Amino acid sequence: MPTTLAITGKSGSGKTTITKAFLRVFQEYFPDKSILLFDNDLAAELGHSFGKDIRNTIYGIRSGKHEYKTGIPEGMTKQEYIEWALEDIVETVDENVDIIVSWLVASKDCRCPITKQMCDAILKFINQYDIVIFDCEYDLKYLNQLVDTEIDTAIIVTNPTEASIQLASRIEEYSAKYAAGGQLGVVLNKVDNRDTSTMFELLRKYELEVLGVIPEDKNLEEHSVERDSKAVQEAIKQFYFRLNLPQTRV
Questions:
Q1: Does residue 250 have a pLDDT over 60?
Q2: What is the pTM of this model?
Q3: Edge to edge, what strands does the sheet with 35-39 contain?
Q4: Which residues, 6 or more positions from 164, have their beta carbon under 8 angstroms from its beta carbon?
Q5: pLDDT for 12-60, tens place per residue?
């Protein structure tokens, strides 16, 4: 089973930047491990941060709209076809690092056979990797509608405002049952030099576990497409020990 990290939060909170920063930390700590970036956010911005415009998605397989790189092999069962198609749409973004994009997903209430077949195929697919990072939509429910997998650590990215923290509380409520057995907490992002005592009082009020704090990186305004931030990476290293993730460096 791979190590799984899910990053959730509202749009604009910095999820994609933090997802990419965690990737860089994993690459530094575990250079020989295979990593899958699983873009489950409807905005599908993660690929753009690597200079890729990824159009082939899991939704494309389900809807029959995907154009395959090669001809479809003959004689496959439906399950084998889905598994083969997932391999066809995955893209390499770095050494030992692949990315796959889900885009739209179906409701778990859908009783059509492909819902279970897709879930089984995705589970088999992600189990090929040592580490899987899910860049999620608003909460974990949207990911769970696509694939029911255990999450070792789920992070809710929130900004240091009262409205953002209130929203984080709702996300935590919606996500808790999907993170059962794993770690679920908040990372306070884009923190500047102002007094944050009020923010931490609000976090305590809503009984949100604070896993870490990330300072605001003004350099991101100049390099917003790449979403690479050394400052964010260094901040993650400061609280990495608190996370339910592998702690031994290779």
A1: no
A2: 0.93
A3: 91-94, 97-101, 35-39, 131-135, 3-9, 153-158, 183-191, 210-215
A4: 10, 13, 158
A5: 899 999 999 999 999 999 999 999 999 999 988 899 999 999 989 999 8
